[in-house]
């Protein structure tokens, strides 16, 4: 029971039993999947990114194991926000629910946000989707677009809005600042890095989409650096993500400046027990160092 | 983990089993060591990647019995000896080893993992088989499995209809402690209802759309259960807890659809 109190966090007004959040796109395609992860001990759960229309996603193979991680090119499969929201409405979840959304422009983002708002506790904007009018460059790589979309959604809804940042930019703090300026309640860093895997036996790219996003331990140091830099640049909360598998990875990300952390790919290698294991590792760490969770956040910046 | 990396293998031989099902024999030691009921993710270079059961093992070689259905399996059926496949796995939990008198109930290509179970354990436990298919020509592996009863939907062989009627008959005639089943979910649901009614144990292999096989993507969820990692073989107690089993499945987009 002591562990419980020790790990409680408040994030942009959201109370969570612990700082672990299921990352978007993992298990979150159905309310049943989200509920399972909540019961496995996550303080928060994020839905699969939902868009205005149903999408089947990219052709398979959708996932390839690479050294120290996975490449995925799911292609944002989702049943459409209306369908998902109507299912989610029927389920009572034992964790804070983040509704992840993607769209091509501010109007679409607004529409999806409006449909999802009544069924979730906060929104996460997946800004890594290519912008329809800018020839494929991700929305999240362009500060003016980030500002436009974040402020449109913030004005539309009355729940906290988090902007999820792509690391595929020359300066992630510039994008983070644009989100903060536009009124985001927090940022999430990072999404996957672009990658590709070519099979030497057949000489073909393996993924059906040829290239995909890299996640897992391979990107963890990139996540730590991104969170560290964002902590220096911003005053809104940061949710860290990227290759968190062990207790050390988790504490490292908190020390860099994250208020909470998302876990995704670790579920493949560790299994669903990863949330319980990380929480108990964190509780032991706090206990043995005689520290509160809030003292840990950003502590590496003292040096 | 090692088993997740794709292994490129040459097809050793191809055999026509029925007008719509071919067996592909492939060298793959990790799969040859799998438990019956576990599955592989098989990449067909130039087409897609699909989950398949091992249908038999010969030393370091495995048989894959592939039913022609949609785009990937059509392409698969064009492949010949020496063409390449990419294999990862084995994934998931297989069937419990049969130690008591058992009955295998298979429908269509669903008989594939049961054939491997039979091959591996028929000498150690008493195993009876009931097999069903759409029509006589589609009945699989009859010579090896020597079923006590067969059914066909069109009545061209055995009992007309599903495997459920012959299954009930066998259960009332011979001693069976555990039923093992694999096939279309409506059939598996029917088998489940009979097992509850007759108070026999059940080991059922389930199917859902599988895009990753490693427990990440969520495409294979039944309620909060990942068929790829937590299944695909499930027991009676687990089945009782499902709300969606036999009623709902998910499309490629994740949309809930009636079975
Ligand atoms: C654990 C497991 C073991 C299986 N074992 C065998 C086997 O031994 N032999 C065999 O012939 N078939 C087996 N299947 C079914 C096989 O995976 C599908 O028939 C195949 O994926 C169809 O692909 P397609 O591109 O030809 O069809 P599509 O045109 O893409 O789809 C036709 C139908 O096949 C099913 N399907 C399609 N893609 C998938 C997918 N990625 N995962 C699961 N189902 C899918 C869906 O129900 C779909 O409606 C197994 C499935 C599972 C889940
Ligand atoms: C299979 C898979 C699907 C994903 N889908 C999404 C998605 O729909 N939206 C999103 O914002 N991020 C998505 N991501 C990225 C994760 O949310 C996370 O940012 C990233 O994987 C890094 O964390 P990890 O290393 O703990 O997985 C996906 C990742 C994976 C592995
Ligand atoms: S197939 Fe991806 S979670 Fe099961």
Short description:
The complex is a heterodimer of chains A (303) and B (259). Chain A is α/β, with parallel strands linked by helices and 303 residues long.
Question: What are the defining features of this structure?
Answer:
heterodimer, A: 303 residues, alpha/beta, TIM Barrel, 8-stranded parallel β-barrel, 4-stranded antiparallel beta sheet, 35% helix, globular, B: 259 residues, Elongation Factor Tu (Ef-tu), domain 3, Rossmann fold, 2 domains, 7-stranded antiparallel beta sheet, 7-stranded mixed beta sheet, 7 helices, binds flavin-adenine dinucleotide, binds flavin mononucleotide, binds FE2/S2 (inorganic) cluster
As residue ranges, the low-confidence spans of chain A are: none
Q: Which whole number gives the mean pLDDT of chain B?
A: 96
Number of E-state strands of chain B: 18
CATH topology call of the largest domain in chain B: Rossmann fold
Based on the structure, what is the oligomeric state of the protein chains? heterodimer
Helical content class of chain B: 10-25%
- CATH architecture name of chain A: Alpha-Beta Barrel
Describe the structure.
The complex is a heterodimer of chains A (about 300) and B (about 260). Chain A contains 11 helices and 16 strands. Chain A has one domain: Aldolase class I (TIM Barrel), CATH 3.20.20. In chain A, the strands form 4 sheets. An 8-stranded parallel β-barrel of chain A has the order 3-4-7-8-9-10-15-16, surrounded by 7 helices. Chain A starts with a helix and ends in a 7-residue tail after the last helix. With about 300 residues, chain A is of the alpha/beta class. Chain B is globular. In chain B, strand 14 (about 220) and strand 15 form a beta hairpin. Chain B has about 260 residues and is α/β, with parallel strands linked by helices. Chain B is about 20% helix and about 35% strand. In chain B, the strands form 4 sheets. Chain B has a 7-stranded antiparallel beta sheet. Chain B has a 7-stranded mixed beta sheet with strand order 11-10-9-8-12-13-16, with helices on both faces. A two-stranded antiparallel ribbon of chain B has the order 14-15. Chain B has helices spanning about 30, 70-80, 110-120, 140-145, 165-175, 185-200, 235-240, and strands at about 5-20, 20-25, 40-45, 50-55, 55-60, 60-65, 85-90, 100-105, 125-135, 150, 160, 180, 200-205, 220, 225, 235, 250, 255-259. Classes of the chains: A alpha/beta (about 300), B alpha/beta (about 260). Chains A and B meet through helix 2, strand 5, helix 3 and helix 9 of A and strand 7, strand 14 and strand 15 of B. Bound molecules: flavin-adenine dinucleotide, flavin mononucleotide and FE2/S2 (inorganic) cluster.
């Amino acid at each position: 029971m002591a562990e419980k109190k020790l790990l409680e966090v408040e994030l942009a007004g959201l109370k969570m039993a612990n700082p672990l959040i299921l990352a978007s796109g993992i298990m979150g395609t159905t309310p049943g999947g989200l509920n399972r992860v909540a019961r496995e001990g996550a303080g928060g759960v994020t839905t699969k990114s939902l868009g205005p229309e149903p999408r089947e996603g990219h052709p398979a193979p959708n996932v390839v194991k690479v050294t120290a991680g996975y490449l995925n090119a799911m292609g944002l499969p989702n049943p459409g926000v209306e369908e998902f929201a109507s299912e989610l409405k029927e389920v009572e979840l034992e964790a804070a629910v983040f509704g992840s959304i993607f769209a091509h422009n501010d109007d679409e983002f607004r529409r999806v946000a409006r449909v999802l708002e009544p069924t979730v506790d906060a929104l996460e904007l997946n800004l890594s989707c290519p912008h329809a009018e800018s020839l494929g460059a991700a929305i999240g790589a362009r500060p003016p677009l980030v500002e436009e979309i974040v402020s449109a959604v913030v004005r539309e809804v009355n729940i906290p809005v988090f902007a999820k940042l792509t690391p595929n930019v020359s300066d992630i703090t510039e994008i983070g600042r644009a989100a903060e300026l536009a009124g985001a309640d927090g940022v999430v860093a990072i999404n996957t890095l672009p990658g590709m895997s070519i099979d030497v036996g057949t000489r073909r790219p393996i993924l059906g989409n040829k290239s995909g996003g890299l996640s897992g331990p391979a990107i963890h140091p990139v996540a730590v650096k991104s969170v560290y830099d964002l902590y220096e640049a911003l005053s809104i909360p940061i949710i860290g993500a990227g290759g968190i598998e062990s207790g050390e990875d988790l504490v490292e990300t908190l020390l860099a400046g994250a208020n909470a952390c998302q876990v995704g790919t670790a579920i493949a290698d560790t299994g669903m027990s990863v949330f319980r294991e990380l929480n108990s590792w964190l509780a032991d760490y706090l206990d043995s160092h005689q520290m509160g969770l809030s003292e840990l956040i950003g502590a590496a910046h003292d040096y | 983990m090692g088993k997740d990396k794709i292994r490129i293998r040459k097809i050793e031989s191809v055999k026509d089993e029925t007008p719509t099902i071919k067996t592909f024999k492939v060298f793959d030691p990790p799969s040859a060591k799998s438990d019956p009921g576990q599955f592989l993710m098989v990449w067909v270079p130039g087409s897609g990647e699909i989950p398949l059961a091992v249908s038999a093992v010969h030393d370091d070689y495995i048989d894959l019995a592939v039913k022609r259905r949609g785009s990937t399996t059509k392409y698969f059926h064009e492949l010949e000896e020496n063409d390449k496949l990419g294999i990862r796995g084995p994934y998931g939990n297989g069937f419990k080893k049969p130690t008591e008198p058992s009955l295998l109930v298979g429908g269509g290509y669903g008989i594939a993992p049961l054939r491997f179970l039979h091959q591996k354990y028929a000498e150690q436990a008493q195993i009876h088989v009931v097999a069903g298919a759409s029509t006589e020509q589609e009945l699989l592996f009859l010579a090896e499995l020597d079923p006590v009863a067969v059914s066909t939907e069109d009545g061209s062989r055995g009992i007309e209809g599903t495997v459920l009627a012959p299954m009930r008959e066998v259960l009332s005639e011979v001693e069976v402690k555990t039923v093992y089943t694999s096939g279309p979910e409506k059939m598996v649901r029917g088998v489940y209802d009979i097992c509850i009614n007759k108070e026999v144990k059940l080991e059922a292999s389930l199917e859902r759309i599988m895009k990753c096989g490693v427990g990440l993507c969520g495409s294979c969820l039944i309620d909060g259960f990942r068929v790829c990692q937590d299944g695909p073989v499930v027991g009676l107690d687990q089945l009782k807890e499902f709300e969606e089993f036999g009623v709902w499945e998910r499309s490629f987009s994740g949309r809930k659809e009636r079975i």
